[in-house]
Amino acid sequence: MKCVFVTVGTTSFDDLIACVSGHDSLQIFKSLGYNQLVLQIGRGKVVPEPFSTESFTLDVYRYKDSLKEDLEKADLVISHAGAGSCLETLEKRKPLVVVINEKLMNNHQLELAKQLHKDGHLFYCTCSTLPGLLQSVDLSTLKCFPPGQPEKFSAFLDKVVGLQK
Predict the structure, then answer these.
(1) Phi-psi region of 92 (alpha: psi -120 to 50; beta: other; left: phi over 0)
(2) Taking the mean position of all CA atoms in its chain, how far away is CA 88?
(3) To which H or E segment does residue 121 belong?
(4) What are the CB-based long-range contacts (under 8 Å, 24+) for 122-125?
(5) What is the distance between the alpha carbons of residues 46 and 121, in angstroms, rounded to a whole number?
(6) What CA–CA distances, in Å, run from 93 to 32, 76, 150, 159?
(7) Sign of CA dihedral 58, 61, 62, 65
């Protein structure tokens, strides 16, 4: 099974969940050869109805103790721009598309996504541009994130959020 895993972490990001579970997005996933979509919806109000057909499965849950299993089986991860979700996905060497929540004020997540994109580790977009990005992007161009350097990532985050110059 070729799987897309979508995570919003501990927050809610209803626009993202509505976008990826909509008819158009499901058709795009199918056209790209994916046959499973797993949604981790956090505390969101949008709760898509799980289904399973011969050619496609949609699974939905709020939280698990660990996302490790879902990340490991994913062929593509679509995530909010939370630092924890990004880092965990990149450490697993999974292709990552980060979707920026435009409704957040003082969006440090955008800065994180921009820098990791500039460094070649992920693609980022908004909910409105996600379908087009999925259809046009070449995931094989992404660079692996260097493993085991939490102090560098921490220093980078401090710089991005303005705690360090």
Answers:
(1) alpha
(2) 11
(3) none
(4) 122/86, 122/90, 122/96, 122/97, 122/98, 123/96, 123/97, 123/98, 124/81, 124/97, 124/98, 124/99, 124/100, 125/97, 125/98, 125/99, 125/100
(5) 29
(6) 20, 10, 15, 24
(7) negative
Amino acid sitting at position 117: H
Q: Tell me how far apart the alpha carbons of residues 126 and 129 are, in angstroms, rounded to a whole number.
A: 5
* Cβ atoms 90, 146 nearer than 8 A: no
**Which residue is it, tokens 């260097």?**
146
The CA distance from 83 to 112, in Å, is: 8
Q: Which two tokens stand for residue 27?
A: 């058709």
Calpha distance 122→137 (Å, rounded): 11
Q: C-alpha dihedral over 41, 47, 108, 65, to 10 degrees?
A: -10
Q: How confident is the model at residue 159 (pLDDT cuts 50, 70, 90)?
A: confident
pLDDT tens for 88-137 read: 999 999 999 999 988 875 667 788 888 899 999 999 999 999 999 999 99
Helix 108-118 and helix 150-160, axial crossing angle in degrees, nearest 10: 130
Q: Measured between alpha carbons, how far is 77 from 3 in angstroms, rounded to an integer?
A: 9
Residue 92: CB atoms within 10 A of its CB come to: 16
